[in-house]
Amino acid sequence: MRSDGDVRTVSMVFGSLHDLWWVVAKSLLLYVTAVVCFRIGERRTLAEMSAFDFVAAVAAGAIVGRVPNAHDAGYLAGAATLITILLAHRLTARLRFRPLLAKLIDHPPRLLVADGKVLDAELRRSGLTRQDLYGLLRQHGVDELASVRFVVFEQRGQVSVVRRGAAPADTELLRDLS
């Protein structure tokens, strides 16, 4: 005959069938809710991520992963939390159209190399070393600094390399460089 201790141990390890079905149901509902929210949202959420995109994606993943296992949180609480996070993300994306707020939200692009000369102060501001820069240049097929007109560390962390001999620079494209 089983003791209450044996039943509790089995329940702690495997849980109850009722709880398992509720976890599965909440997981599926939250997954569908997340897919719908991301689908309704802008593509930028899943494209190259800025800091606020990353926070929204991680928060959404945490909600979808945590709520189904939380006995004290129902689907509606999880869905409301998920929708709130994604609406805050959308609002932040909209606020980026205001120049002052965009400066607070986004990193500015930085000119790292100008006419083959490394701008060490801009490297430091970007949190990069010369070795980081050299590795990025090699990835772009650059084998000597003298062949580079300029290198820009973009807002999302990519590096743009323009070589000497390329078409003249459009000053509009270079205006926001620090």
Characterize the structure shown.
- The protein has 178 residues and is of the alpha+beta class.
- The protein folds into 2 domains: 4-102, no CATH class; 108-174, bsu07140 like domains (CRO Repressor, 2-Layer Sandwich), CATH 3.30.240.
- It has 8 helices and 4 strands; from the N terminus they run αααααββααββα.
- It has helices spanning 4-14, 17-40, 51-66, 75-95, 99-105, 120-126, 130-139, 171-174, and strands at 110-114, 117-118, 148-153, 159-163.
- The protein has a 4-stranded antiparallel β-sheet.
- It starts with a helix and ends with a helix.
Structural features:
178 residues; CRO Repressor; 2 domains; 4-stranded antiparallel β-sheet
